[in-house]
Design a protein that fits this description.
With 219 residues, the protein is mainly alpha-helical. It folds into two domains: 96 residues, Orthogonal Bundle (Endonuclease Iii, domain 2), CATH 1.10.1670.40; 104 residues, Endonuclease III, domain 1 (Orthogonal Bundle). The chain is built from twelve helices and no strands. Helix 1 crosses helix 12, helix 3 runs antiparallel to helix 7 and helix 3 crosses helix 9. The longest helix is centred in the first third of the chain and has 23 residues. The radius of gyration is 18 Å and the shape is globular. The protein starts with a helix and ends in an 8-residue tail after the last helix.
Length: 219
């Protein structure tokens, strides 16, 4: 078994264990699992290309974010910090970069290529330290850092509370009259520690389920 296969198998085992624990203490989680089934683990490769891709996916649709990433890969061949740093602005804008994200990409590329940010170091850091290191970089906020920790580093107690889809799913899961904000989401998820990453994966699946219901039941 390759290292990638071993990592995928371990992530799947961890997720199953965490979902079982969540369902045992939260009836709404248990009901959602019975209704829609368990989510799959999300696994992304470590490195600059993935982190930049998460930045590019901020505040755009999934389809738009993926399209920008495809165009960038086509334009550069290999998406490295050095390649992005050397690319003309017109090339990156042509791939779909907004002006703010162009700036953030330049900053991240410089941090990595000049050795101030070693993404391999994040593997050895506790969650709080890894979050602090990433969010110290302009253009990387809480959501971006948390997605990297969840999908790349496989951290099991990460909770991207600002995520709109999670907020909508949580509102419906808990029968709330209004969509919770990030602070409300953080409070809601206290009972889901230390398996909040599994809760987030389930809620993203639940959100897709809500979106795919007949129009009369749609969110």
């Amino acid at each position: 078994m390759s290292l990638t296969e071993e990592r995928a198998a371990q992530r799947a085992e961890d997720l199953a264990e965490d979902l079982t624990a969540l369902a045992a203490r939260d009836p709404d989680i248990a009901a959602a699992l019975r209704e829609i089934g368990a989510p799959d683990p999300r696994i992304a490769e470590p490195g600059f290309e993935t982190l930049l891709g998460i930045i590019l996916e901020q505040q755009v649709s999934v389809a738009s974010g993926k399209a920008i990433r495809r165009k960038l890969a086509d334009a550069l061949g290999h998406v490295t910090a050095e390649a992005v740093g050397a690319a003309e602005d017109a090339v990156l804008v042509g791939c779909g970069f907004s002006r703010p994200k162009l700036r953030y990409a330049r900053i991240l590329a410089a941090e990595v290529s000049e050795g101030r940010l070693d993404l391999d170091d994040l593997e050895r850091m506790p969650d709080e330290a890894a979050m602090a290191r990433l969010t110290a970089i302009t253009g990387i906020g809480r959501w971006t850092a948390e997605i990297y920790l969840m999908f790349v580093l496989g951290r099991r107690d990460i909770w991207p509370a600002p995520d709109l889809a999670l907020q909508v799913a949580a509102q419906h899961l808990k029968g709330m009259t209004a969509r919770p904000d990030a602070r409300g989401m953080d409070l809601l998820a206290q009972n889901w520690r230390p398996q909040r990453s599994a809760a987030a994966l389930l809620l993203w699946r639940f959100y897709r389920h809500l979106r795919n219901r007949p129009a009369t039941d749609a969110v």
